[in-house]
Design brief:
Elements: E1 19-25, E2 28-33, E3 45-50, E4 53-59, E5 66-69, E6 95-101, E7 107-116, E8 120-130, E9 136-138, E10 150-154, E11 172-178, E12 181-184, H1 186-189, H2 196-207, E13 216-217, H3 226-235, H4 240-250, E14 255-256, H5 258-269, H6 275-283
Parallel strand pairs: 13-14
Antiparallel strand pairs: 1-2, 2-3, 3-4, 5-6, 6-7, 7-8, 9-10, 10-11, 11-12
Helix pairs in contact: 2-4, 3-4
Length: 302
């Protein structure tokens, strides 16, 4: 599940473009470039220097792409946590986070993470996909032995699946840097099961959806996306059995094709890059230890 690191782009970018952002943590310097005259991102790139020599450079592949040292916005609550030189991963070495905004509607944000200690290396790229405000760096809970920051992102596998983007569910995924990779952290994603009366209330909302009252058969019939929203929340918090029980309780009586929906839902879920780890989380009992090494490296790490 761990994809190969993106190779540095060879060849010197245009020298006439001056950096619009630069930070230094000796002996490293990070510089972000953007051609403000062209304003199309075609000359956007970043470079990292060590002792005055370039050790990494990456250019934008498409117009409108931009790079940022740390977070995109300086008033982002996460900005102070990922300043250049801070230990992001918890391995005792200073790190550097470069955010890459690909542009376009709702899309897409990447975090490039580098170690800038005695040895320079790229640790990975976290693909946060849609949105520029959803992903967060978060401190581990007080009982955790980890000292690094976890990364909270969302799985957008169901974006625009049988509904519009605004109503598309995106279950939360938590990554932790462990064994040289960002890995899904099942122990941090597990939560207590929702109360039965809460699920019953949600099921009634789905069953009583006005559009479903017209009847028909899935996928042509209208079914509230709150159905698979709740199912995904249950599955991604370790309660897959409850998710399938919820389907039985919430399916609208006038809509045919529940089994077809279940088949389609499973097929879409299998497309998630996080599904192997999430599926394993639901197939096993919670581990007693905090640092669960069974979860595969995040497929979002490149």
């Amino acid at each position: 599940m761990l994809a190969g690191f993106a190779a540095p782009v060879h060849g010197d970018p245009p020298v006439q473009v001056i950096p619009h952002q630069e930070e230094t943590v000796a002996p490293y310097v990070a510089r972000i470039y953007f051609d403000s005259k062209e304003k199309d991102g075609s000359d956007a790139y970043f470079e990292i220097l060590k002792d005055g020599k370039r050790v990494y450079v990456q250019k934008a592949k498409e117009k409108s792409e931009k790079f940022f040292i740390g977070t995109m916005y300086k008033d982002d609550p996460d900005a102070a946590m990922v300043k250049m030189g801070m230990d992001i991963t918890g391995d005792g070495q200073p790190d550097l986070v470069i955010s890459e905004w690909l542009g376009g509607a709702n899309c897409c944000l990447l975090f490039h993470v580098f170690e800038i200690g005695p040895t320079f290396k790229k640790l990975g790229t976290i693909d946060a996909e849609f949105g520029d405000s959803g992903p967060h760096f978060v401190h581990p809970d007080k009982d955790s032995k980890s000292t690094g920051l976890n990364v909270q992102i969302y799985d957008w596998t169901f974006a625009n699946w049988n509904t519009d983007f605004a109503d598309s569910p995106a279950p939360k995924v938590i990554l932790r840097f462990s064994d040289n990779a960002y890995r899904v952290a099942p122990d941090l994603m597990r939560t207590p099961a929702p109360a039965a009366n809460d699920l019953a209330t949600r099921a009634a909302v789905v069953r009583d959806n006005a559009a479903s009252a017209k009847g028909g058969a899935w996928p042509d019939a209208k079914v509230s996306p709150q159905l698979w929203d709740t199912m995904l929340d249950l599955i991604y918090s370790g309660h897959a059995d409850d998710a399938w029980k919820f389907l039985d309780a919430a399916w609208p009586s006038k809509v045919q094709g529940k089994d077809v929906f279940a088949r389609d839902f499973r097929a879409q879920l299998a497309k998630s890059p996080y599904w192997p780890a999430v599926g394993a989380m639901n197939a096993t009992r919670p581990r007693a230890i905090k640092n669960d090494q069974s979860a595969s490296p995040s497929p979002a790490t490149k």
